[in-house]
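Margin note: ligand = nicotinamide-adenine-dinucleotide.
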Amino acid sequence: MITPILQALGVTSEEVSRGDIVVKSPIDGREIGRVLSDSAQEVERKIAASVQAFHAWRDVPAPRRGELIRLFGEELRAHKAHLGKLVTLEAGKILQEGLGEVQEMIDICDFAVGLSRQLYGLTIASERPGHRMMETWHPLGPVGVISAFNFPVAVWAWNAALAIVCGDSVIWKPSEKTPLTAMATQKLFERALACFGDAPKSLSQVVQGGRAVGEMLARDARVPLISATGSTHMGKALSPVVAGRLGRTILELGGNNAMIVAPSADLKLAERAITFAAVGTAGQRCTSLRRVIAHTSIKDQLVDRLKTVYGKIKIGNPLTEGTLVGPLIDGAAVEAMERALAQAKAEGGKVSGGGRVLTNEFAGAHYVRPALVEMPRQSDIVKRETFAPILYVLGYSQFDDAMALQNGVAQGLSSCIFTRDMQEAERFVAASGSDCGIANVNIGPSGAEIGGAFGGEKETGGGRESGSDSWKAYMRRQTATINYSNALPLAQGIRFDTE
Ligand code: NAD
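Resulting structure:
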């Protein structure tokens, strides 16, 4: 099944038939390709080529740079079905989500095309007569993008579409668990480059490999910005390396996202939002819902309803229509889930669900039943991100206590409240409310739109990507003052007479 898809995307069988990275589909554990890691020399060569590409690209007018991204968006539209299916085959998310991921790439391309005519600076009033002061945004340099397995292509696109209209070149190190989707995306980008005509060939490149290849990018001073998406553990290792050379980072790390369900909440809406956010992508989204903080007056009712819904969720082959929960990425993910459930029990949790399923049909794969865990308090395990479909349920009686629980974890990515009480809604999004990068009212924590800035606080890393003014992170700011008078007045009224 995979060969015609790869071929349609421009990847030859030869390119995926040898190498040290063995790619297995999480659907059935079968090998679907082999990819060669880049050697240190290859990474070095690609970084040098990226610097050269940047030097040529930064002088291309920004709206013309936008034209390349427009062409790339067209390639994505034409190949959405194939690339979406490849995401499902390689990352295991259900087909609707695979297609949704490619749609997100298309959306950010559209955003970036518009942005290419809006990289606005400022004109600032100068205190000196006959002077004009302005703030300009210039291209930054090669941008290193390190991405995680669970959004194997969209995260790169959020970064690359903006970086390229901003005049930067891009070097992408995808997850070693999803090298094929990266290869296919690169092929589509190369087609857009060919249509465009005169863009540098190495404008966007892929380097394949694991942590060591990521570290090479992190260490290299020719790469002024590293945008890294992955676990907090990875961020804590990478950040000091980049900081050690005073480079910049955009860090998009782990989340531990909560929903407060207030007494006035529309429980039907909340139940739907909880189900999508907690079990969608088999709990393998950075924005997956991991904690429900429900008012004690409705908690038991909510838990009963959720148990009924959880009982009906179709787990299985993510390519089959109607499946809502596909496999976990690998065996290590199942072990992490089992360890977390054991610890939750030891900390007083009441577990329903969990455990491996479909072990006969898919012996080489890792399907699990989503778990619901009623916890007596926000114990250690609840404060940790386990990248699997585990939903902890906690109770509260005072709004302030709910807020304290919501904010009482190290991560700060996404958050939400279901309420029809206007004061509660406003308090949730106020300065003393949610401390997360994303705060929603009557919407679940996952599935952000590309128009807003995406990212989170605290151990989520503080980076922002995608919409709003996130583009500024991919450029360097310059303050320029021009003297069009015949005098040389000094700032702050300083007199410095030499005659
Ligand atoms: P991971 O941390 O294992 O790997 C992510 C990437 O970092 C991979 O490409 C990996 O090779 C690379 N890497 C690992 N250590 C490195 C190092 N020291 N230096 C340089 N590169 C290094 O994460 P994963 O298992 O692929 O993804 C799941 C995690 O990603 C979860 O914690 C999830 O919350 C997080 N995530 C966050 C966001 C976000 O936007 N905040 C989005 C998606 C995933």
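The chain has a mean pLDDT of 97.
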